[in-house]
Design brief:
The protein is of the alpha+beta class and about 140 residues long. The chain has 6 helices and 3 strands, in the order αβββααααα. The longest helix is centred in the C-terminal third of the chain and has 21 residues. It is globular.
Amino acid sequence: MYSEKVMDHFANPRNVGELPDANGVGEVGNPQCGDIMRMYLKIKDGIIEDVKFKTFGCGAAIATSSMATVLIKGKTIDEALKLTNKAVMEALDGLPPVKIHCSVLAEQAVKAAVADYYTRLGIDPEPIVGKIQHDCHDCEGCCG
């Protein structure tokens, strides 16, 4: 059902934890389905120097959070904002259809953290980041 990469990122997640000096923090999720992701970014000179995450949810939620952090660490803000749920799924060698929402949440968590970064700088993030979807709308029965 799950790829070897999904199982590896679930069993050995990368970049887990909090960043006490984060200058961008974003949280997305849906308490009804149980997947909640919080992403912490340390950005310096437009580069994501460090990234951590804390995810409460199923194995796919943990794996997609882990992979998203791997894909954006060391990248520019612009590169991180180009991260798509499709790229996260491809990097994990796919997800079952009922778990695709987890990759969407991972993409949205990155965007929410970048939006928080811009907000802390006094810049309206919406023209740069776009509208943030804070919860998933496809969670009915996904995590039961």
